[in-house]
Amino acid sequence: MTGVVGVETVVVGGGAMGAATAWQLARRGREVTLLERFEPGHRNGSSHGASRNFNVGYADPAYVAMLVEALPLWRELEAESGASLLDLVGVANHGPTPHFDVVHAALTAAGIPAEFLPVEEASRRWPGIRFDTRVLFNERAGRVDADAAVAALHARAAALGADVRHRTRATAIEVVGGDRVRVASTSDDGAEQVFEARTAVVTLGAWTTKFIGALPLPPLVVTQEQPAHFAVRDDGMPWPSYNQFPGSPADGYGYWRSPVYGMLTPGEGVKAGWHGVGPLADPDARDFLPVPDQLADLQRYARDWLPGVDADAVTPISCTYTTTPDEHFVLDRIGPIVVGAGFSGHGFKFTPVVGRILADLADGTGPAPPRFAADRAAVPGSSSPTELAGR
User: Fold this and answer.
1) How far apart are CA 214 and CA 273, in angstroms?
2) C-alpha dist (Å) from residue 205 to 14, 47, 86, 342, 345
3) What pLDDT digit, counting tens, does each position of 98-154 carry?
4) How far, in Å, CA of 338 to CA of 27, rounded?
């Protein structure tokens, strides 16, 4: 039986960004329904796992402004939910890259702590990592517990009146006017329902193009990424989150696939991963298996640069990236549909800010920065935001 339910806003996709949007709308007293296809804590998308880098290594003004807003919002979510989500163990960025000075200047100007450490000092603080260049260290940074964050957002949104529906798949979306949109859904028990709303917020990650392919969005490339956890040799050793950038092949970096990001995941080991080099993937037909040569090179990286781990004691992980051509997000409104997509492997740290921006777009109370417009053109010569941004 299909029924039509009227609601002010329907959010399609209950991962981190959709859950944050529902939380922000519910905080404002808005009527919101959140539709999530899978069960709580599922592993099918990009929002799972116990750790994400909360790395502040950006120079782009749009992202720096979001960083200034992010930490207080994470703390508000912790205070509301009673959950511990953000652990400020710091982030150590190192490697032979020319971008550190620009990032340092941008962060300092914004009041975000950033300092350069010599190799000797960094090695003393974190003996589990091998350093051979100066380190850009950010003390007001660290890691976020992704699983706990999504659970807290769902719980707080529901507590504030949002209708949070897991195991309910959105199957179609139809614009029925300048200010009305319908979303059809099917739950796991076979019940069908249509939600008619003033606004639909689509935060479907790897499924975005499948669901709203006709909208004028930048190309969204879905890849299956394959970081791994490595067992630590000493449980008492301190670990910052980290990002490392390669030099030339002649200096021994020829096997590197990309920069490397990582952090300690308590109870699981030290995470390390190549950034955005996984194979193309259909989110509904993934094998969740590592590419053998990429994993072997990641183990080689661990042997070369992480003396504090056992490179042979490795547990592969699988997740998806949904990446735009310029690696900048899409946060925009097209008619009655708001889209949050293309987080390109560096969005999780901004989750509560993205939720606020998408809620503003749904409410019609403010535009997103032009950087995130759906119809933007790539700026010739502009740099990728992920040069120091680590997942």
Assistant:
1) 33
2) 10, 9, 23, 7, 11
3) 899 999 999 999 999 999 999 999 999 999 999 999 999 999 999 999 999 999 999
4) 19
Structure tokens at 33: 């329904």
**CB of 323 closer than 8 Å to CB of 237:** no
DSSP per-residue codes, 299-352: HHHHHHH-TTEEEEEEEE--EEEEE-TTS--EEEEETTEEEEE--TT--GGGHH
Any residues with CB less than 8 A from the CB of 235 and at least 6 apart, and which? none
Distance of alpha carbon 11 from alpha carbon 121, whole angstroms: 47
Question: DSSP letter string over 208-274?
Answer: HHHHHTTS-----EEEEE--EEEEES-TT----EEEE----GGGTTTT--S-EEEEEETTTEEEEEE
CA distance 188 to 52: 30
**DSSP classification of residue 48:** -
Place of tokens 């971008």: 99
Closest CA to 45 of 165, 184, 186, 146: 146
Residues written for the chain:
391
